[in-house]
Specification:
The complex is a heterodimer of chains A (162) and B (544). With 162 residues, chain A is of the alpha+beta class. Chain A contains 4 helices and 9 strands. The mean pLDDT of chain A is 94. Chain B is α/β, with parallel strands linked by helices and 544 residues long. Chain B has 22 helices and 18 strands. In chain B, α1 crosses α2 and α3 packs parallel to α4. The termini of chain B are far apart. The mean pLDDT of chain B is 95. The chains are: A alpha+beta (162), B alpha/beta (544). At the A-B interface, α1, α2 and β4 of A face loops of B. The complex binds thiamine diphosphate (TPP) and magnesium ion.
């Protein structure tokens, strides 16, 4: 099962290496990892998605805790709103451009760049939405696609504090 | 004051008395500043030995060991010793010189990313980027190394930082908001433990290296007596308790004693104390103590449940936890398995040695064990001789057996003995080493002579990489590959070259006299024992 871990870490050089190295060393696969600074500039927040059974996830948790730079870990799988973000660059022709624009509007993808042969879409959504949209545009030529990992936050009043 | 001076000042504040190290260009300021300090420097003959010596120092004193080296090759040479400290949870602070900050990343002369390289096997590490941070970082390093699950911390100090002249504030606080080792055991689990002990008819204590680090030898004996439970040890546990105690059944595991392994196999409750239940100690996965409820007490939550399912997990400091356990109302007097234990103890362990081919290593270790008083510290190298020592040597006091357990590092013997000797001038230090391992660290005879360290060296010469030969005998159908050390040197000449007294023992009746020499205080002596090359740790096929 997929788990979303929200991890507060010291905002220092080398921390990402320590965290990602631990995963690699112990054979845990990271599905995605996103890191960015929080409201407190001394703290960064990593959102890590891993796939594994409860035992694996417990070990990951414990091993993360052993890293001195890790401040706090929360498994927010059940309580999180999560989003990913993607740019999709599609090759178009005068013949199919309109069709692509209509489709984009229907799925609420934002058009952020247009040129005679290219349309770039900006898409935000959960994992399902992103893969559905990609599937939808697969019949055109996707020249390039770039996407972030998952960022997630807990619903309601609870919040992850140092 | 420059950064190097500041660093040394913090070391002094931390109570450091000895540094093991090796100089080079990137640590010139440190060596220069050291001249103004009372801290003693021991020049080992390679950096790896400096790290091992710092381990030996730490494990024979309960203090943090300190070693340092120059950048690049000096730093990489430290690595084996740091990894060894990590796997045996030895508190160590390793300091490395680094090229100047502005040159980092340019692949300049003697630059390596030692922080990156050591991340997998340090508890924590630092690259100092601002000289002002030196006091805080060094303080933190000692605190991290010596608390919780202990271990090595590395500090990489660029040369310009060592040279930086400024005001240093030594009153800084450590700033580790997330690091708080959990000392107190959970009361619910403790209540479960109390019930489990009361219900148990065949309780067993399993002593690991954590018992050494927590200094709980006396409490373990007290508990063992109180609940009428014998105890077994892991390899590192041998150093944690006196194993000559009547309740001790010896070392468990792949190369452990039958009595100890049988006890694990038939116990109904095994209380694991500060051990990580590694594969060497438990054999096949999930085949450890199959009939028992396993209680696992450890300071490191990540160890609990990592290798074996646990009936009662207890995260806590062993001293705190054992103190609480001893206060429980748990006198267990009925002992269902006393007769079984007495029977297992009768089993005679052998090595399969045959006197025509050389000495039986068991005779040598037993003579040493019988002759040693509680003033003796034994360190070992890695190989058959180490396992024979683990099986047949009985320690009289806590802290008197120092070996490389987790990493199994050849060339640990002489350096660790050097560390122990530096820390314990009034103790007799003896080290056991194979002919293979000796040739990985015989350069340290130079350090031993330079510092006049009174060490007895027991060289177990079987002209083989014996441990690997034995594995090949068992698992490769005796097809031997690169395990014969055919051109071993004349070891007497090596001893002579370093000015070390030398004795050869090739007859059984010479053992006692030679062992007496090994145990004589104030003697630097090497005794070469000609061991039967066919002697084995497991005389029967392993894995049966
Ligand atoms: C640095 C290192 N290299 C290789 C090994 C693998 N190894 C384990 S025991 C051993 C043989 C040791 O031979 P020796 O020192 O003569 O001791 P003996 O087993 O003969 O008593 C070897 C090669 C090791 N443990 N450490
Ligand atoms: Mg040998």
């Amino acid at each position: 099962m997929k788990h979303i871990l929200s991890v507060l870490v010291e905002n220092r050089a080398g921390v990402l290496h320590k965290v990602s190295g631990m995963f690699g060393r112990r054979g845990y696969n990271i599905e995605s990892l996103v890191v960015g600074v929080t409201q407190d500039p001394s703290v960064s927040r990593m959102t890590i998605v891993i796939d594994g059974n409860d035992n694996n996830v417990e070990q990951v948790n414990k091993q993360l805790h052993k890293l001195i730079d890790v401040i706090k870990i929360n498994d927010i799988t059940k309580t999180a709103i999560s989003r990913q973000f993607a740019f999709i660059k599609i090759r178009c022709t005068p013949a199919n451009r309109n069709e692509i624009v209509v489709l984009a509007n229907i799925v609420e993808a934002k058009i952020v760049d247009v040129s005679p042969e290219i349309i770039i879409l900006e898409v935000t959504g959960d994992e399902d939405k992103l893969s559905n949209i990609k599937a939808l545009f697969d019949k055109y030529t996707i020249a390039e696609m770039v996407q972030t990992g998952v960022v997630a936050i807990e619903k309601g009043t609870s919040s992850l504090k140092v | 004051m420059n950064g190097a001076g500041a660093l040394i000042k913090v070391l002094e504040n931390e109570g450091v008395q000895v540094i093991f190290g090796y100089p080079g260009g990137a640590v010139l300021p440190l060596y220069d500043a050291l001249l103004c300090s009372d801290i003693k420097h021991v020049l080992t003959r390679t950096e790896q030995s400096a790290a091992h010596a710092a381990c030996g120092y730490s494990r024979s004193t309960d203090k943090v060991g300190v070693c340092w080296a120059t950048s690049g090759p000096g730093a990489t040479n430290l690595i084996t010793g740091i990894a060894n400290a990590y796997l045996d949870s030895t508190p160590l602070v390793a300091i490395t010189g680094q090229v100047a900050t502005e040159l980092i990343g340019h692949d300049v002369f003697q630059e390596v990313d030692i922080v990156g390289a050591t991340t997998p096997f340090t508890k924590h590490n630092y690259l100092v980027k601002d000289a002002a941070d030196i006091p805080r970082i060094v303080k933190e390093a000692f605190y991290i190394a010596n608390t919780g699950r202990k271990g090595p911390v590395l500090i990489d100090v660029p040369k310009d930082i060592q040279e930086k002249v400024r005001n240093y504030d030594f009153d800084v606080e450590i700033a580790l908001r997330s690091y708080k080792p959990n000392m107190e055991p959970n009361f619910r689990q403790m209540a479960k433990l109390e019930e489990a002990i009361k219900d148990s008819k065949r309780p067993l204590l399993c002593v690991g290296g954590g018992c050494m680090l927590s200094r709980v030898s006396d409490k373990i004996i007290e508990l063992s007596n109180k609940i009428n439970a014998p105890f077994v040890t892991t390899m590192l546990g041998i150093g944690a308790v006196p194993t000559d105690h009547e309740n001790c059944l010896g070392m468990i595991g792949q190369s452990g004693l039958k009595a100890a392994n049988d006890a694990v196999e038939s116990a109904d409750l095994v209380v694991v104390l500060g051990a990580r239940l590694g594969d060497r100690a438990t054999g096949k996965h999930n085949s450890f103590a199959r009939k028992a409820k396993i209680v696992h007490i450890d300071i490191d939550p990540a160890e609990i449940g990592k290798n074996h399912n646990t009936y009662i997990p207890i995260v806590g400091d062993l001293d705190v936890t054992l103190t609480k356990i001893l206060k429980m109302d748990i006198e267990v007097k009925s002992n269902e398995w006393a007769a079984d234990i007495a029977e297992w103890r009768k089993y005679v362990e052998t090595t399969g040695a045959c006197c025509e081919n050389g000495l039986d290593p068991k005779d040598v270790i037993e003579a040493l064990s019988d002759g040693a008083d509680d003033n003796v510290i034994l360190t070992t190298d890695v190989g058959q001789h180490q396992v024979w020592a683990g099986r047949f040597y009985r320690t009289k006091t806590r802290g008197s057996f120092i070996t490389s357990g987790g990493l199994g590092t050849m060339a640990f013997s002489l350096p660790s003995a050097i560390g122990a000797a530096m820390a314990n001038p009034d103790k007799r230090i003896v080290t056991i080493v194979g002919d293979g391992g000796f040739q990985m660290c015989l350069n340290e005879l130079g350090t031993i002579k330079q510092e006049e360290l009174k060490i007895g060296i027991a060289l177990f010469n079987n002209n083989r990489l014996g441990m690997v030969r034995e594995l090949q005998e068992h698992f490769c159908g005796a097809r031997y590959s690169s395990v014969h050390l055919e051109s071993n040197p004349d070891f007497s000449k090596i001893a002579e070259a370093y000015g070390v007294e030398y004795i050869l023992v090739d007859k059984k009746d010479q053992i006692d006299a030679a062992v007496k020499m090994l145990l004589t205080p104030d003697k630097i002596v090497m005794v070469e024992f000609d061991i039967d090359p066919n002697a084995n740790v497991k005389p029967v096929k392993a894995g049966e």
